[in-house]
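User: Before I run my own analysis I want an independent prediction to cross-check against. Here's the chain; please return only the structure tokens and, at the end, one sentence I can use as a sanity check.
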Amino acid sequence: MKRYLISLIALLCLLPAMAAGTPKISFNSTTHDFGTIKESDGPVSYDFIIKNTGDAPLIIISATASCGCTTPDIPKEPIRPGATARLNVRFDPKGRPGEFEKTVRVKTNVKGNRKTLRIKGVVIPKSKAEK
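Assistant: Structure tokens:
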């Protein structure tokens, strides 16, 4: 009888946590190709669209770029279930001629589910006249 009572108490304690729901994350795309860009045109950026397909608020905790030339800007507010938000990634081509591929690791409140976003392209260096 004591074992059943303990099991019942444990189940009652877990019900509120189970009812809270779970956030789920999806993206419009996980890779963006800038194509060919000119170093002289300066930084370029792209908005990855995040959607919360779960039934609890989604929180973007952090986004970490693989290089200092890439800067992610995460949404500050929680994303409600069914809502979308933008995660902007900016790339500065200054001093980086040639092909590039950079990554951004996104940490959320979705357990065990870190996502990796990629940007890539080719930087055309400044001409001698532009330097």
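Sanity check: The first strand starts at residue 25 and ends at 27.
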